[in-house]
């Protein structure tokens, strides 16, 4: 991702340096906490979480599932997945990448203490990463570390490969206190529930844990300044319906969920109820099996791209919780700065005449209003999405209707269980599926997800489900990810965009959004469409920035 920030000097070629104080301006101060404010209840729809585990490195820990681990343990910097995709230094006062992104230098922030009163130092940063380097902690983030060294308050981290497309993974790696974790025998399994173990630098500290809720209180010595919100309650409801009821009644204040009919079921209940849709570099995407009919013909894929209504996907399938992607490069609004001049403003639209012209030029005909391919066979295919994925199930129906009416293509709707769908997407036994993309915060995510053969291992696909393979594209992908100059990366991006526009290996429908429901009854300063300094999703690392920006409502 390009780290867009006013702190990067123009013409800086050898390194990208980010510095600054991270806390919100109106909330800075010498003491944390505010006993007089209202608590915030943060809700999820995942059912009861029955076992306590506060280990930030375990994806199935209660700290990860509820999300409260992110306000206890912090990272070197925060990478905004939306808006300007910018990076804000956090536990590091500065983060500096070398030219090819194989080395990160981080300056530990001064004046930070752990919640048990011990000083935070550069050694804590080094220790956290060395757990992975030494093999004590599993490398679940694919950091691919080479070495870690400390010089005063500066830590230098070297990698075996470029991290240009993985900057967020590195910068969001959570930092833990050496004086506690050095005694943890196995950080891959320890639940971190012992007395005084859940110690972090974050704005909140663990107060009470139960299967019904988890309570955290403001860290009175938080380095980021005074916190308007004195207490956070984390609660998990049985499903979206129960969560929606809690949000409407005021029992819950903040959540991340897809709520059907959100206008009537939530927003209209109180003018202070808010809903923020934050587009990211990812997208809900139609993947086609390029190895078999009918999708082995680029003309057919191009015709579909001129027929599919992305706005209907957003308005009907996603109920407004997305934004359409129309550009022929497949890149959405947050990445429009990467679109080459040739394709700026070159967008698809619903143009049936255009689509039919493409098909006619390729030898297709119609018989009784049914599309017939050059081999004399009627064109039809199935599109598969797991049953219960309501938004994409709706999109299946929309596609079936659109393509039948416009082009005479029979689309069969397939809604298997997860296991059957998963096996088909890996093994390449599907015809079409709707799927997400690898989100790297830049154009690489789209193009590696749809055109990179590296994802095919032992005949099974983790991405590139259509199995696109072009040596020129593979070379361009490798250059984009590993280049030591922006010129080389831009040249590689041009190859990727041209190929995607001409070959249409997949069809992005709408930006993958991060969603957030919240209310402004007690606090203001939330991110918004006008000020997307973070998404409003409380499960994202940016929650700590939001909590330093909130101020009491008047």
Describe it:
This protein has 554 residues and is α+β, with helices and mostly antiparallel strands. It folds into three domains: 38-72 and 202-272 and 520-553, D-Maltodextrin-Binding Protein, domain 2; 74-186, Dipeptide-binding Protein, domain 1 (Alpha-Beta Complex), CATH 3.90.76.10; 280-512, Dipeptide-binding Protein, Domain 3 (Dipeptide-binding Protein, domain 3, Roll). Helix content is 25%, strand content 21%. It is built from 15 helices and 23 strands. Strands 9-10-11-2-12-21-13-18-16-17 form a ten-stranded mixed β-sheet, sandwiched between helices. The chain has a five-stranded antiparallel β-sheet with strand order 1-5-6-8-7, covered by helices on one side. The protein has a two-stranded antiparallel ribbon with strand order 3-4. Helix 12 runs antiparallel to helix 13. The two termini are 38 Å apart. InterPro entries: Peptide/Ni-bd (IPR030678), SBP_5 (IPR039424), SBP_5_dom (IPR000914). Residues 1-22 form the signal peptide. This is Peptide/nickel transport system substrate-binding protein. It comes from Microbacterium marinum. Residues 88-449 form the Solute-binding protein family domain.
List the helices and strands and how they pair.
Layout: E1 16-19, E2 40-44, H1 62-66, E3 77-79, E4 87-89, E5 92-97, E6 103-108, H2 122-133, E7 145-151, E8 154-159, H3 167-171, H4 178-181, E9 204-209, E10 214-218, E11 231-236, H5 240-249, E12 254-255, H6 262-265, E13 273-288, H7 298-305, H8 310-317, H9 352-361, E14 365-367, E15 370-372, E16 380-384, H10 390-407, E17 410-414, H11 418-427, E18 432-435, H12 444-451, E19 456-457, E20 460-461, H13 471-482, H14 486-503, E21 506-519, E22 523-524, H15 543-549, E23 551-552
Parallel strand pairs: 2-11, 2-12, 16-17, 16-18
Antiparallel strand pairs: 1-5, 3-4, 5-6, 6-8, 7-8, 9-10, 10-11, 12-21, 13-18, 13-21, 14-15, 19-20, 22-23
Helix pairs in contact: 7-9, 8-10, 12-13, 13-14
């Amino acid at each position: 991702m390009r780290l867009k920030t006013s702190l990067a000097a123009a013409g800086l070629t050898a390194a990208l340096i980010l510095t600054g104080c991270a806390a919100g301006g109106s909330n800075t101060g010498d003491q944390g906490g505010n006993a007089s404010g209202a608590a915030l209840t943060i809700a999820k729809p995942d059912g009861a979480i029955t076992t306590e585990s506060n280990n930030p490195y375990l994806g199935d820990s209660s700290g990860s599932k509820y999300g409260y681990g992110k306000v206890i343990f912090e990272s070197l910097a925060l990478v905004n997945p939306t808006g300007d995709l910018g990076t804000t230094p956090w536990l590091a006062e500065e983060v500096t990448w070398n030219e090819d992104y194989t080395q990160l230098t981080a300056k530990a922030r001064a004046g930070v203490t752990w919640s048990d009163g011990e000083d935070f130092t550069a050694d804590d940063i080094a220790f956290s990463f060395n757990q992975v380097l030494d093999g004590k902690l599993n490398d679940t983030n694919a950091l691919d570390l080479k070495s870690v060294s400390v010089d005063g308050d500066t830590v230098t981290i070297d990698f075996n490969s470029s991290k240009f497309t993985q900057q967020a993974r590195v910068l969001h790696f959570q930092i833990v206190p050496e004086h506690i974790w050095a005694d943890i025998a196995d950080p891959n399994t320890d639940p971190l529930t012992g007395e005084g173990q859940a110690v972090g630098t974050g704005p909140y500290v663990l107060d009470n844990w139960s299967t019904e809720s988890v309570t955290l209180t403001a860290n009175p010595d938080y380095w980021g300044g005074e916190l308007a919100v004195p207490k956070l309650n984390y609660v998990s409801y049985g499903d979206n319906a129960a969560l929606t009821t809690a949000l409407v009644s005021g029992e819950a204040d903040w959540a991340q969920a897809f709520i059907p009919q959100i206008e009537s079921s939530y927003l209209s209940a109180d003018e202070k109820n808010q809903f923020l849709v934050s587009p990211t570099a990812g997208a809900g995407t139609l993947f086609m099996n390029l190895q078999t009919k009918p999708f082995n013909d680029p003309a057919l894929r191009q015709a579909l791209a001129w027929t599919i209504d992305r706005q209907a996907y957003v308005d009907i399938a996603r109920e407004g919780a997305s934004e359409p992607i129309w550009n022929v490069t497949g890149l959405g609004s947050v990445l429009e700065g990467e679109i080459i001049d040739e394709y700026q403003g070159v967008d698809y639209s619903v143009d049936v005449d255009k689509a039919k012209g493409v098909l006619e030029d390729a030898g297709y005909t119609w018989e009784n209003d049914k599309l017939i391919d050059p081999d004399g066979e009627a064109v039809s295919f199935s599109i598969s999405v797991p049953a219960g994925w309501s938004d994409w199930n709706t999109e299946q129906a929309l596609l079936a209707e659109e393509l039948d009416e416009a082009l005479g293509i029979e689309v069969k709707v397939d809604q298997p269980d997860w296991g059957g769908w998963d096996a088909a997407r890996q093994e390449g036994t599907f015809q079409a599926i709707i799927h997400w993309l690898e989100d790297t915060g830049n154009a690489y995510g789209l193009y590696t997800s749809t055109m990179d053969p590296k994802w095919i291992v032992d005949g099974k696909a983790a991405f590139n489900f259509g199995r696109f393979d072009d040596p020129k594209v593979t070379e361009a992908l490798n250059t984009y990810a590993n280049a030591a100059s922006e010129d080389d990366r831009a040249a590689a991006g041009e190859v990727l965009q041209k190929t995607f526009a001409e070959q249409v290996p997949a069809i992005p429908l709408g930006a993958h959004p991060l969603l957030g429901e919240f209310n402004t009854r007690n606090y203001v300063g939330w991110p918004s469409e006008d000020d997307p300094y973070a998404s409003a999703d409380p499960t994202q690392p940016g929650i700590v920035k939001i909590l330093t920006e909130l101020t009491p409502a008047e």
